[in-house]
Amino acid sequence: MASAISLLLLPSPSPRPLPRGGASGLLCCPRRHRVLLPSPGLVRAPHRLLAAAPPPRASNNNDNSGAVEAPDRLVAAVAYLYPFLDGAHHGRFLLAQFPFFSDLLRPLGPAARLFHSSPLTPFLLFLTLYFAVVRNQRAFSRFVRFNAMQAVVLDVLLIFPDLLAQSFAPSGGVGFEIFQSMESTVFLFLLVCLVYGGGACLLGKTPRLPIVADAAERQKHLNGLLVLAANRCLSM
């Protein structure tokens, strides 16, 4: 009896906390996952990210085929026919030696006959190409005007082989062979300029002819050469 009373008078032991995990953890509510939010100083606004992006670099190639319309391509390509037809006489030795060049250029026969139909035709075409195309910024794009100016400069440069042919025309010997080689070189250069320039224009690309392109960009320094070209057209 006394032992039972002593047991009742003893303080009851405090309950122990349940350990985390284990089987008792199944009866507890699951813990919520914490969402880690970045500090306000690290969050950048979308417009700041767009502003920090570097601007796109301009392409270094000359492919602008998506921006050039079909009429501009055709006009720019046709412009290269003018210097070729004006200097086609430099290929008389090459055409006589290699007849397949004549067959290759046979489709240009009607244009050549029309070009040489009158002594004033080259001069009138020169004035039209320079004043109506090159200097006409409202009607034609820069693509057309630049290629037309290259054609004009190429025709102006024909002054030098023409003067050489008039002053140095040997009838035989080594000098005549050198003269033939020079004439054939001029004709082949004109042919390459026609194929390369016209083909690039039809593809919508801007061709840059050697020597000619730099002079075409500095067209303000060509007034004297343009006068010589006009005199050359009138004297033919």
Give a description of the structure.
This protein has 236 residues and is mainly alpha-helical. It has a domain of 140 residues. 58% of the residues lie in helices and 0% in strands. The chain is built from 13 helices and no strands. Helix 8 packs antiparallel against helix 9. The radius of gyration is 42 Å and the shape is globular. The termini are far apart. The N terminus is likely disordered.
Q: Supply the number of helical segments.
A: 13
If you average the pLDDT, what whole number results?
A: 75
- Structural class estimated from helices and strands: mainly alpha
Q: What global shape is seen?
A: globular
Radius of gyration: 42 Å
The oligomeric state is: single chain
The ordered string of helix (H) and strand (E) elements is HHHHHHHHHHHHH
N-to-C terminal Cα separation, in Å? Answer: 150 Å
Number of strands: 0
- Bin the helical content: 55-70%
Q: Approximately how much beta-strand content do the residues carry?
A: under 5%
Q: Report on the biggest sheet.
A: none
> Which residue ranges are poorly predicted, with pLDDT under 50 across at least 5 consecutive positions?
1-10, 17-61
